[in-house]
ABC-type quaternary amine transporter (Nocardiopsis flavescens), 363 residues
Amino acid sequence: MSIRAAADRRSAPARAEGLAVDGLTVHYGSTAAVRGVSLDVAPAETVAVIGPSGCGKSTTLRAVAGLVPVSGGAVSLAGRDVTGWNPSRRNIGLVPQNYAVFPHMSVAANIAYGLRARGTAAARRRERVREMLEVTRLTDLAQRRPDQLSGGQRQRVALARALAIRPDALLLDEPLAALDPQLRGGLRRELAAMLAETDCATLIVTHDQQEALSLGSRIALLREGRLVQFDTPRRLWDDPADAFVADFLAGAVLLDAVVDDGHALALDGRWRVPVRDLAVRPTAHGSTRLLLRHDSLTVTDDPARAVLEARVTHSEFTGDGVRLTVRAGEQVLGVRVPPDARVGGSVSLAVAPGRAVLLTPGA
Ligand SMILES: Nc1ncnc2c1ncn2[C@@H]1O[C@H](COP(=O)(O)OP(=O)(O)OP(=O)(O)O)[C@@H](O)[C@H]1O
């Protein structure tokens, strides 16, 4: 049975509106950890919250769960304002970073925990635990204790326990962070498959860009407690709101530019790139900018090309090539060159045709 089929057994009109956070502000003493964050998660949708360490991701999650008091804004769940509600009244399933499974209880007892706490009758509890064991593929491990499980299996126990209560929202705090890097790729796909089966609104906190891009149907990017951009992974990648977003998500560089006489002028006019060498895309974020990724630039000795002189500050062998870090004036850029390329202390850079993007308002 799928998670969705298991959930469909109850009528669920109340969850139709998912989760909404409006102007959320949270203080720890005089420090504002979250500042006016607004986002929404539709039923059956997964939204990833990402950002650098200390930007307020976990605090946002904890405020939604009711575990920290809010100093402003509102949280609504399934169409009800739950801002002042106790955590236990919110019908939220929370999977904390360390999974917090009870070590002295069997897998089955862990999954039954929330149902027992709500006074669910024994027969219904057994049935629901059986369903959750099945959908998380833990049936054969039902009587084991958590210390007899792998990290990935423990994660599934935590997920099954959170989903057993049929929550309106599921909150996952760094669900893969505790696992071996080698296992993460496979478990990410497994988690994505399980989340695709649920019909609750899922908010997942991660500091891993790849995890956010692959698990979130939308991504909320936070910086210093503020929401910088809330968008689909594709739009965040293709049309970042600012240089911070471009860098954080893709290690890309965003340069202010102006277009003049068939050329894009960047770096205060020091670099004049023919527009015909650029991919031109419209931006939803106002100004004209040049988006450069690692493969956007090449090193050239062709004096006929529009070059930018730069100084090599670092070079790193990546197997299939060498990644150079270069500095043009104050601007730091990344360039990938073939493994056998001969580069000295300074290089002439040109755009790889079609690989750098000119973002233009209303293009
Ligand atoms: N209990 C607390 N008391 C005081 N300050 C706190 C507390 N918890 C978090 N903070 C501060 O609030 C800010 C946001 O913390 P939060 O844990 O939400 O960030 P995060 O984005 O989840 O970080 P990380 O990725 O490192 O887990 C940080 O500046 C942090 O130092």
Remarks:
- The chain has nine helices and 21 strands.
- The longest strand covers residues 31-41.
- Confidence is low (pLDDT under 50) at residues 6-15.
- Residues 181-197 form the longest helix (17 residues).
